[in-house]
Amino acid sequence: MEFNLERYLSDGIEKLVKNALRVTRKSPKQIAFFLRYKSASQKAAKRRNEMERAGMHIPPFLIASITNECNLKCTGCYSRAYNSYSEAQELSVDVWARIFKEASDLGVSVILLAGGEPLLRNDVIEVASKQDDIIFPVFTNGTKLGKMTYKMFESHKNLIPIISIEGDENLTDNRRGDGVFNEIIKSMRTLNERMILFGASITVTAKNIDSVISESFVSELESAGCKVILFVEYVPVDQSNIALHDETRTKMAAGIEELRSKNDKVIIISFPGDEAESGGCLAAGRGFFHISATGNVEPCPFSPYSDLNIKDVSVSEAICSPFFNQLRMEGLLNLPHTGGCVLFEKDEDVRKLLNQE
User: Fold this and answer.
1) Facing residues of 230 across strands?
2) What is the dihedral of CA 328, 329, 334, 336, to 10 degrees?
3) Which residue, 83, 113, 121, 296, could crosslink 306 as a Cys pair with Cβ 3.0–4.6 Å?
């Protein structure tokens, strides 16, 4: 049977909604939101199908890095390594509002807000909150949550804080700075007390893998109120010695599968591990693409190359980027998936294609 990417992605959204309803069954307001969102996501899927039949593939996901600024200096930070040199002005809140509206009209269902530290751009997050047919996971370091942001998350269920954590106190503070772990735990407790759906994002390295895929650690996150856990494989910037290799990737996949089989109270997602089921890398508009804080339209955050800027084009034009088309035509996205980031590993080939463009 021929693989249907649009069906695969739409099924993924449906599964996400189903799991969200399952883990939020004690929160009537959250359940009411996800029931409304279920209807909106079905309409979005119908729109994507219409576009597919017309010859244009619309990815259901978008990653938006809304700022390069951050209050922390985490060891091995990919965003800081690749974006700190940029002198280009960050996109205005009006441009982001246009992006969110155009994405919604096309059938995009989920937009991940990243950074830097996205809570340093609350103006953009407030605009996102009004686009309630889209879910906006907000990837934050957890140290900038305050009275106003808690209120915003309470009032707008389409905003879901995802807090970065590296494992226990020692592992987290070693990478993120002294005292960060305790701030994170305090933020999680407050979110839980206010019955705000939130998750955790864990960068998996050779150093913390045994700790973070353990049942005890996941149980601790669950006890803190966490409903979503995202395991993200570390992309080596300046610490290649802690990157995963084939053996540890196999261990990570097996550990996550076991966690899923034993825990039905938390949504567990693995990236890019779960891409293996999709027949290749989902970047470059296949399943998602990335817009940088300064507007560059990129295949993904780990492949920061661009031939277009969103200030000059619409979202639909960005999806049809000649560079994205070249990546798909050359087959780079469909290379055998053994873990890690395909485009990051093929960085030289990606740059050659961009230069040809």
Assistant:
1) 201, 269
2) -140
3) 296
Burial label for 173, CB within 10 Å (0-12, 13-18, 19+), is middle
Q: What are phi and psi of 228, to 5 degrees?
A: -135, 130
> Could you tell me the domains of the chain?
5-356 (3.20.20.70)
HSE, side-chain direction, 13 A CA sphere, residue 329? 8
Per-residue DSSP letters for 160-195?
A: EEEEE--SSHHHHHHHH-TTHHHHHHHHHHHHHHTT
Burial per residue of 182-197, b for 16 or more beta-carbon CB atoms within 10 angstroms, e otherwise = ebbbebbebbbeeebb
DSSP state of 301: T
Q: Which residues contact 128 (CB under 8 A, 6 or more apart)?
A: 96, 100, 111, 113, 134, 136, 158, 159
pTM here? Answer: 0.93
Q: How far apart are CA 229 and CA 218, in angstroms?
A: 8
Dump pLDDT digits (tens) for 327-350: 888 888 876 645 557 787 778 888
pLDDT computed for residue 149 by the predictor:
95
Taking the C-alpha atoms of residue 218 and residue 167, their distance in angstroms, rounded to an integer, is 10
Q: What is the mean pLDDT of the chain?
A: 89
In this structure, the strands spanning 267-271 and 228-233 are: parallel
